[in-house]
Amino acid sequence: DVIANIVVIFVLFLQAAVLLSGLRLKYATIDDMTICYGEKGKKQKGKPTMILVHGFTACKFMWAPLVKVRT
To answer: At residue 65, does pLDDT exceed 90?
Structure first.
């Protein structure tokens, strides 16, 4: 199926973008809900922490290009 192949290629592209950005994906469980989040860099005294939150139709992979540029 052509559509399924396109989706697989797109997901692989997004996963590669995360790897190349240096973003480390981690998971936290709060009550019965597991949340995926990404980290990059280390906390630096006097510098703010940036938190990026996406909406319902987006996914964590979409932040990878921005993370690479900003850090």
So the answer is: no
CA-to-CA separations, 71 to 9, 37, 54, in angstroms, rounded: 27, 16, 19
CA distances from 43 to 36, 49, 50, 58, 68 (A): 19, 7, 10, 26, 16
User: pLDDT tens for residues 26-57?
Assistant: 899 999 999 888 888 888 899 888 777 777 77
Ramachandran bin of 41, using left for φ above 0, alpha for ψ from -120 to 50, beta for the remaining angles: left
Helix, strand, or coil (residue 71): coil
pLDDT, average across residues 5-34: 87
**Is residue 38 within 8 Å of 26, Cβ to Cβ?**
yes
